[in-house]
Each structure stands twice: as C-alpha cells, then as structure tokens.
Amino acid sequence: MTNGGWITMILSVGFVTTLFLFCIIRVLRGPGRNTEHELGHIEPIVKDKINER
What we know:
single chain; 53 residues; 1 helix
C-alpha cells in the first residue's frame, strides 16, 4: 500500500473510532444538568368534568 493509502486509512479509522467513543460517552453520561425540557405535562382528570372532554 502506498503512503497516501496508509494516511487515508489511518485518518478514516481514527475518525470513526473517535466518533464512536464520543457517542458512547454521551450515551453513558445521560442528559446534562442544563436540560430545559421536561416530560409532557398531563393534567389530572377531575371526576366532575369527565364528560366535558
């Protein structure tokens, strides 16, 4: 293999490995403390107003 082939292979394998590790770390850490969204808000059903919906 030529020098250009080795350089291309090392760069591509290094990029994919780095991206894989980055994704695994992000998944294992979970959401950060700065999450601004929460789960959907569901209002409780009041027994008096069940038929109004």
